[in-house]
Amino acid sequence: MxxxxxxxxxxxxxxxxxxxxxxxxxVDAALREIRMALLxxxxxxxxxxxxxxxxxxxxxxEEVWNGLKPHEQVVKIxxxxxxxxxxxTSSRLVFTRQTPxxxxxxxxxxxxxxxxxxxISRWLRDNQERxxxxxxxxxxxxxxxxxxxxxxxxxxxxxxxASETNDPLELVRxxxxxxxxxxxxxxxxxxxxxxxxxDELMVELEQIKAETRPIEVLFVAxxxxxxxxxxxxxxxxxxxxxxxxxxTKMDGDxxxxxxxxxxxxxxxxxxxxxxxxxxxxxxxxxPDRIAQRILGMGDVLSLIExxxxxxxxxxxxxxxxxxxxxxxxxxxxxxxLGQFKKxxxxxxxxxxxxxxxxxxxxxxxxxxxMVDHQMKRxxxxxxxxxxxxxxxxxxxDASRRTRIAGGSGSSISEVNQLxxxxxxxxxxxxxxxxxxxxxxxxxxxxxxxxxxxxxxLGxxxxxxLGSGSAIDHSDDDAGDAPSRSIRKKxxxxxxx
Length: 496
Description:
Oligomer: single chain
Distance between the termini: 64 Å
Structural class: alpha/beta
Radius of gyration: 28 Å
Low-confidence stretches: 438-490
Strand content: 5-15%
CATH class of the largest domain: Alpha Beta
Shape: flat
CATH topology of the largest domain: Rossmann fold
Strand order of the largest sheet: 3-2-4-1-5-6-7-8
CATH architecture of the largest domain: 3-Layer(aba) Sandwich
């Protein structure tokens, strides 16, 4: 998300950095570029205009020009204004002591409303310890209620069903009663959508709202529709009074104009964004973190949360301990690959790191796919090894390499390449141990992130996959590497 805008803003601000002494003319030129970048990202015209003027006013302050690095202060102003534009801080769902807390999900047909209902319920259960119940009141679209049941089963959230009635108000009354009887503290209502906004839809939503008194009314919009999503949200807000927005398909929208405009236009925040098709692919919307991503500052906090949520910390700590003792085996590396895959694509992780850490380099989707492909091939090779071979690579002689290559559908040179990279990694770990670097690292990593991400990117995976995303297919000697090393030592002894 925001790739197009991010590239343009970073280039513009990079030009400011290279201008030496900053002048008002430089800033004016940069602001013109920023304005064009915002408009090309499908940001509302008035929003883009007000944003640029706000940056201009703050950048003209005397303290900016008197600073040691004026361009950095301009970057800071742009970052602050971007954050403010999107809402400043994250807006979470606000729950009360009311039982159940009702959350209405509204939106046009095709926006991803039903799927988002399931995703949000799962997120509330996993992250806020809520006990949600789902109900569909879409009695018009064929199989709409059955679709929610499928989604509910997929995320492990119960769905209230009353096949004997097609009255939306009766359905919500029954669902509220059911929630009270069985102790569900949150009821998410998947309302009916339409292909276009009509009065009949709005009247029905008003009635459901009056009946259930929801604590939240969330409008679901397809981010790829840009300003159309903003205009639809405006109409829904005028009639129903929405309290927040859920933007779907943000992973497919490189512009992000809807996310940047919607808060300023309707006065209500974006609360969640859908970032993929999987049921866990939903994130709370953090304006400050998004602004950091756009400007190339990274989003380390979201990365930490991602790691903590998906990486087994005990397992990561155990692997780190093995590294400190230089006991890290191919079996451990196989486990790392499995954990790393839970975090998503490499390109997604790279976008969360600051430009200073990545050197400003970005990974394309094609390059990310190459890394993913390489990880699968590596998994296949290690998976073809016996447990004894995984735990002691030194026993893998020429005949074993041939068997492993055949079993994994790879070549002997690929097997050799993997073993060579593994040997190099072990040597590096041994050097770090001798220098006392691992001991200090282990202390810093005791907090959780490091045991997970630090271990995985800075340890096995970082070293073995970081040396190249594609395997070197050059002809390698298929002989026994350890035995060659032994012969070398013997020759050295003889010379002595």
